[in-house]
Amino acid sequence: MNTLSAVPDLILVASANPHKIEELQQMLRPLSITLKSTLDFPDGEEVVEDLPTLEGNALKKARYWNQFSGLPALADDTGLEVDALDGAPGVYSARYAGEKASYSDNVMKLLNELEDKPDKTARFRTVIAFVDGVNEHLFEGVCSGEITDRQKGEKGFGYDPVFRPAGYEKTFAELSPEEKNNISHRGLSIKAFTEFLESKKNS
Fold first, then answer.
1. Strands, DSSP E only, in 101-165?
2. CA-to-CA distance for 91 and 62, rounded, in angstroms?
């Protein structure tokens, strides 16, 4: 991995997920970085996340969108790793209940799989890849916790209603966006990324 020569003022987020884009925008706002997304490039192809690791999928997406758009590209892959399920759903988290599965489908499958298992410990892990055409960097964030027996909360998305972070009585879906960003896997990975950019800005 090479060093970053300058802090970009425009970054393409390799995602069409409005929830994810909004989270990233909130966290990158202090650096005055403007975000584009794949929604701004409708002619781009959907990148198939078919690699066996979060790192591989994140890099694959960032490389494609950097080459396609000519902009510095930021991509992430996130997995929920449940101990009682030997780390599943992992890289298959977004399609745990099938290729076209909804958030609700995935959550219900997870709760059914864990119904008779006493160990509910789990962790969310996000890997971010940043590719600017010359340099490639990886940043990781991990949030440990446990899976609840039922869904709680209306905020967030994905598995948020059934994931309770360690040290908290509330699920991700019951926390405010600010509270969640401070401790979440994606928040921690973005924090590592922003600290990296800040160090380059100040050097």
1. 121-131, 136-147, 163-165
2. 17
Do 89 and 110 form a contact (C-beta atoms < 8 A)? yes
pLDDT per residue as tens digits for the range 170-189: 999 999 988 998 899 988 99
As a whole number of angstroms, the distance between CA 60 and CA 192 comes to 20
> What is the DSSP track for 37-103?
EGGG-TTSPPPP--SSSHHHHHHHHHHHHHHHHSS-EEEEEEEEEEGGGTT-EETTGGGTT-TT--H
Positions marked catalytic = 77
Which amino acid would we find at residue 94?
A
CB 8 within 8 A of CB 59: no
Query: pLDDT digit string (tens) for 35-78?
Result: 999 999 999 999 999 999 999 999 999 999 999 999 999 999 99
Domains in the chain: boundaries: 10-202
Is domain 10-202 classified as CATH 3.90.950.10?
A: yes
Give the global pTM: 0.86
Q: Which of 103, 96, 62, 58 is nearest to 77 (CA)?
A: 58
